[in-house]
Amino acid sequence: MIWDTILQPFAEYGFMRRALLGCIAISLGATPVGTFLILRRMSLTGDAMAHAILPGAAIGFLISGLSLIPMTLGGLVAGLLVALLSGFVTRMTSLREDASLAAFYLISLAIGVLIVSMRGSNVDLMHVLFGTVLALDDATLILLCSISSLSLVILALFFRPLVLECADPQFLRSVSGLSAITHFTFLLLVVLNLVGGFHAIGTLMAVGVMILPATAARFWATSIGGMIVTAVAIAMISSLIGLLLSFHFSLPSGPAIILVNGLIYGMSLSFGPVGGLVAQTTAKQHIQI
Amino acid sequence: MGALMYALQFRKLSLGYDHQPAIHQLHAEITTGSLTAIVGPNGAGKSTLLKGVMGMLTPMEGSLAFGSLSRENIAYLPQQSDIDRSFPITVVEVVSMGLWKEIGPFGWLNKTNQVRVDKAIAAVGLTGFESRVIGSLSGGQMQRVLFARLLLQDAQLVLLDEPFNAIDTRTISDLINLIERWHGEGRTILAVLHNHETVQTHFPQTLMIARELVAHGPTKNVLTAENQFRARQMCEACTGPPHVCGKSAA
Fold first, then answer.
1. Are B95 and B143 spatial neighbours (Cβ–Cβ below 8 Å)?
2. In the structure, what pLDDT confidence band is assigned to residue B249 with cuts at 50, 70 and 90?
């Protein structure tokens, strides 16, 4: 029974093993970045950046079709361009970061859709939006693993400034010049992980792996380290369950993974010990006694 | 020789946002080792002045000179709203940030430094609260945490922006003791304050501003009814429509 449902798909089919490895890589790299996005109250920035990547990937596709390197580079360049431009506008004018980011990502998205609809078919657009986790080749797997390794190393190096930049940015600015570098390095990590994620589960779904496990983890852990570990664990378990559901019931795998994440989020929201709904009601009863 | 007498010198300094000066041609000198209160009506530019000292605003005209100090040697406590209280970080972690200049982004907190952190927490009366998350602290306790962090920063010039806002009286008197201890150690302290009673009892020097300098000197000479009236009038005058300044900086 357990063999049939859980182990057999991975034992028998290479594409399932590849899919699992890809998802584990994404969970390891993207989820810690997502945790910081939540803590910086930038949850929607991930969403904006995912849209911003589209024209770059589309131009890459225009030049050389569905191939890994041009689409990755294109996505990276487009994402970083939007991040830098909106950062520049925020620092130079009175426009706040959310507004300037929204302006640039919408322009970028429109360009992307225009390019794809001029040259590609709807199938190609679906590939970029929803990914192909069940068809990961060696090169894509190596890219995904490299991105998550790189982002873990960068995160480890920038951990302290990043925590400070989130908790008390004014203090960081008063003691060190690392504030701006930290901010842009962090945005680089967001873009890098989204670009990696779009090959596997698509630009839009990649944001889900980034944000959902981290929001769920908020209901289980009180420290940053605890949140990151919990979030990564949730992301990995969701990937496994999502892939199996997708295998057994012929569901598209990206949305299946994200929905399992969503389900765990719902459970955490209800039953999580740190500020979950049930924990809150029991706490109230305690006061009444 | 005169260079060492002042910790900070404002030389016809104007600071502001969007071409509107919040501080206008301020000319004053803060003596090294002095304990100075900055007072003035709302909108007088008090917080702006501290931000200018921290280099967060570039002067629109005039300049600002540090005596023997550099910016590295300044500790700054902004108004409390700037810190994210919902962030999952503990008291001991926030206080340890005060050691940033010594250990930087990568250094370890060794035994001696851990003892220093514990001592700073004890000095503000928060022993036993080390592993509490900052979200669970009261306003007064949070301010104690920030003062413990200031203690570890060990700065020669300390800038405090309304440190006693919305805080219980017991915490205020404890924190004033700390400030007086710093004063005794020869540090220069500038604090933006509202409560004139606190200023009269504990701050020997006062700098009264209302966008421009109103008065500066020993507190009893500055905090007069006449000066306060003048400051209010100057502030009301400057809330009118903007006008191009006729005065030029020397």
1. no
2. very low
